[in-house]
């Protein structure tokens, strides 16, 4: 699943095929007239780095250690201020991650006709999803569930409520191939958006950077740490936390001469779960709900009925002041 459709028009040729045909000109339909500029570091203004969360430290909380409170506080402030972090020591075997990456590179080399078998339906993405994750699936789900519990605990959402929403929830994958583009400054690889999911775990398959996140109105490139998973806070967590967390708006750029491949794994609530401010949180904090509640099925329908456009869908989920007075 995930945040859908770039404003790029749907076209029958694949991006890889198109890239082969490209000489020096970018077809007009791919040109982004008004791309917001990227942060440029200088001596006095170094590139802000995405916070790092160490799973080994977080695990102490799961084990019930009292001296791990700082780690939980760090997780809360990172999810609030950034909505993205690099997770190190995540426990997923390095070799298996390498295998997944190799499988993805191979996937993008298979003939187009064969690849079409995996293509997502119209109205979803111009990317491909498939079960390359097979071997890793359970480990990744367990990791995601542990993160959900900790992220919930950090803002006073009951563990049981997180389990009720996310245990055996929907998981989906998007692999995206970004072909080299002779004029990278003119195009955007993936339109700015936040993910509809609870969390997204992102992997970059080769070492070509391209992910950028919007922090305090500025687009910052993400330098992936070796062996780390980049974890995005999605809209569902912003809603469940009643705004204590912020989903991260991100986009992807393309490289002038090199292809880039990314894998986004989306961890979502169950189809029947309510997506709304967590009941235990509202009770524990006595705050009024700032977002509406929709059943996940309906939430997804509404999300995918619009175009990818920053965090506009989330705005629609917000309860306006007058509505709040009525409830
Ligand atoms: O390619 C990337 O690094 C980002 C991918 C992404 O944001 C997505 O698939 O939703």
UniProtKB/TrEMBL annotation:
**Keywords, in A-Z order:** Dioxygenase, Iron, Metal-binding, Oxidoreductase
Gene Ontology molecular functions = dioxygenase activity; metal ion binding; oxidoreductase activity, acting on paired donors, with incorporation or reduction of molecular oxygen
Mind telling me which Pfam families this protein's record contains? 2OG-FeII_Oxy, DIOX_N
Q: Which PROSITE patterns match?
A: FE2OG_OXY
Boundaries of every Fe2OG dioxygenase domain copy: 169-269
Instruction: Please tell me whether the keyword Phosphoprotein is annotated for this protein.
Output: no
What family does the Swiss-Prot or TrEMBL record give for this protein?
Belongs to the iron/ascorbate-dependent oxidoreductase family.
* Name of this chain's protein: Non-heme dioxygenase N-terminal domain-containing protein
């Amino acid at each position: 699943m995930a945040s859908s459709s770039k404003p790029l028009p749907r076209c029958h040729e694949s991006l890889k095929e198109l890239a082969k045909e490209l000489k020096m000109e970018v077809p007009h339909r791919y040109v982004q007239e008004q791309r917001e500029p990227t942060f440029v570091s200088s001596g006095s203004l170094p590139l802000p780095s995405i916070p790092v969360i160490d799973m080994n430290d977080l695990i102490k909380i799961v084990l019930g250690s009292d001296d791990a409170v700082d780690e939980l506080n760090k997780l809360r402030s990172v999810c609030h201020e950034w909505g993205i972090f690099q997770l190190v020591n995540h426990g997923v075997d390095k070799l298996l991650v390498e295998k997944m990456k190799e499988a993805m590179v191979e996937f993008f080399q298979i003939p187009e006709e064969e690849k079409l078998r995996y293509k997502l339906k119209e109205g979803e993405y111009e990317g491909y999803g498939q079960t390359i994750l097979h071997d890793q699936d359970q480990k990744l789900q367990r990791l995601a569930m542990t993160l959900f519990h900790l992220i919930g605990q950090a803002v006073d959402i009951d563990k049981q409520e997180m389990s009720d929403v996310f245990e055996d929830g929907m998981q989906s994958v998007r692999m995206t191939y970004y072909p080299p583009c002779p004029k990278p400054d003119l195009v955007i690889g993936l339109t700015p958006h936040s993910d509809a999911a609870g969390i997204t775990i992102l992997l970059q398959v080769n070492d070509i950077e391209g992910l950028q996140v919007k922090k305090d109105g500025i687009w910052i490139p993400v330098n992936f740490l070796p062996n780390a998973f980049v974890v995005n806070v999605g809209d569902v967590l912003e809603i469940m936390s009643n705004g204590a967390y912020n989903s991260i708006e991100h986009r992807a750029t393309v490289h002038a001469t090199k292809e880039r491949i990314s894998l986004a794994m989306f961890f979502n609530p169950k189809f029947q779960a309510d997506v709304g401010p967590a009941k235990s949180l509202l009770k524990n904090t006595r705050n009024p709900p700032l977002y509406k509640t929709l059943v996940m099925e309906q939430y997804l329908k509404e999300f995918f009925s619009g175009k990818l456009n920053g965090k506009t869908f989330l705005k629609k989920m917000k309860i306006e002041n007058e509505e709040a007075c009525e409830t």
